Amino acid sequence: MEDERAGPEAGPWDDVPQRWLFGGVLLLTAFAFGSTLTFGFVYDDHWTLLGNGFLRDLGNLPMLLGPEAARAGVPDAFRPTLVAFDALSYAVLGLSPLGHHLLSVLLHVVVTALLGVWLSKEGAPRRAVVTSMTLFGVLAIHAEAVAVVSYREDLLAATLGLGAVVVACTRRPTWWNLATCALLMAVSAGAKLSAAGLPLAWLALQRLSPWDTRRSWRDVAAPGLALALGVGIVLAFRVGVLGGIDPYGASERVYASRVGLGPVLAASAQIHLSYLQQLWLPRGFSPEYVDYAASWLDPATMCAVLAFAGFAAMAWATRERAPLVAWVIVATAVLAAPTSNLAPMPNMRADRFVYLSSVPMCVGMSAALERLGEWMRGRFDLPALLPWVAMVVLQGSVLQGATAAYRSESRLWQIALRRAPDSARAHAVLGELLVARLREQPDPSDRPLLLVRARTHCAMALHFDPHAALSHMCEARLAAVERDWPRSHAAFVRALERMHTRRERALLAIASTSLDLPGIPYDQRVTRAFSALKRARREAPFVAEVFAVSGRLRHRLGEPEGAAEDYARASDLHPERWDVVMAGVELQLDLGHTAAASDLWAEATDALDDAPPSRVHALQRRIDAARRLHAQP
Hints:
Serine Threonine Protein Phosphatase 5, Tetratricopeptide repeat; elongated
């Protein structure tokens, strides 16, 4: 077998300036994800971006350096880089779906560019650099990471992490280079700890040196220590400030807390072999995967373990004669380790988990396709690039269909249920979406069918996973829309008992339903409601919904001063919420404060753009009537 260090013969693009090649690849990458610019907010976007009041004030960012943000229930507080990035992006873009999706596409383009810079610095031939960049840019499995705004944590971590390894490639680095390298690695791991494997992947590339650019240990030691220091800073921060590396603990969302780590790791072996299949043969992508346990004696598990053992043996056997093969195997393994369920994770499997580990895989895939093309040219006189072009076309075509699943919330969960019909989460979320449609007062002829569909999805959610909080939340909201307050209240209590995060959702619902419980004295119902509200305000002080619900309940119970304060706080945390604006105006009208209501109405013109026109016109007529009444002598 020919030594890989010899490199390929000259290609048709060797006379093209590198900036033109890079520019063309990056334009293709951006074009491949162009359709996402028309998408809305889905998945956790509603929690981490739209409803996250912490992002509205940049003065809150110093809280991320201590435990206060985590104690206050700030989403992803254990990823300070991500939260700071989201706060800055909100300050610039607001809640524009177009702006945030464009930012995700730009991050992916930057990661693709950094991959090319890294390979170039390591001495890779131009053909290998361009083919690897192109394949990474249009890889179909990247659809989820780029199309969902709240998953740009993977893009951000990869951008900063690859920036760190590019700096680490500097020959004879200065102290400034080393400090920059450590800082970039720290903020990368602070965006997502999946970047923690990059120092080992970089070190393996230096020692294996597939393109004959091996550096001495003296030249590698300082940058390697800088990269490791960056990861160490984040680990120390998590342990010293947040109390541990694991941010999830015994959450009901972590499947290992139910069945143990062993069965989850056995299933994870099967999952990671499936990832390799999806990289080479882009099929089977899904917005939702069902967590499951497996036995080490299952045939699928044993096949996966044997396959990975074979890869490890191949890496060892090829470390001298085919070092690129060895590096691809080693780097993919170390970059996949943080998402291999060794540590507790809310989802055992997701397409976005492969984003960073696909970097070395794309290099290996491009090399394998190039070798296949050389063989086909010699045997059949076909273009050497034919296999690579076919793979790029295949990946790009599948990518278009994969990204379409994330266009809207309802479309996403319908596809998720089609791909994972036994998912309790998919059934529960679809049930809640149908309940929300019922609250919007649909055509009376549609209501019976919506009710039947919602009942079916909620029942299926409880059937597939009676231990999940979402299953009971679906049942509770369905009972509420049916005005069965005792059943709704009991289901919300059951959901709260199973929640370890975002408990304010159940607490607010408990507060609302407590006031309608029959057979309980009125003062006790009020006490229950305010007790739940107090707990919600303590656990989620940056969630606008907490203060919006509190304001409505205080308004209903005749506490106008407290209701006005809650509405004002909710507007500060989420200025774009038209319902809070309208509730504040209605409160002032109820109090007879026509001038105050008019001022609030005038200040909130932009927020009312998304409000139903019928609601806006009705409230405008009420304001006009109050003004005429106030103007009468």
